[in-house]
Amino acid sequence: MAFAQVQRGRSFLSGGIGFNTSSPKNPAPGETKQFTHFDINAKYGFMIGNSWAIGISPSYSTQMQKYAAGGTRVGTDFGIGPFVRKYFALSDKFYFHLDASYSFDQIGSYSTDVNGNKIKDPKSTSNVIAISPGASYFITDRVALQAMLGSLAYTKYNGPATNASTGFVVNFGISSITLGAALYF
Description:
The chain is an all-beta fold.
């Protein structure tokens, strides 16, 4: 079943932006007195068939911690990777889709002590291979509301020798659902 919304030759663009901050009332001297996080990500896909898309997904995030005793820690994360999406038509406007993706992230951070001296940390990298289910509902021929329903992922983190790790993550549930929109052209 091929409908006009997802057909060979079309492209789509979606993305997200996030921000959060927190400040405990009475932190102890070694604890965080303020935490701020900002992230932005995009996803560009190109339909290579009537139910298949390939694309790329860049991302950026930054976070800052201010400590009660003074000093800060700032981290940034740049990521990019390809993905493949398979659409399953449930009606002419509603699709289930499954994304298989790979992401490479470069993570950098630095700290400042109570005297303002900057201490740069060694850079780290992470590699993530994930499978993520989702759904799209087309409100027009060009705009779809989307929900991503969690993920199943394998991660490999390469930091300083003492911080290298691998992991397997299963993240499904009401708290892992993200809502958004995509523009098809």
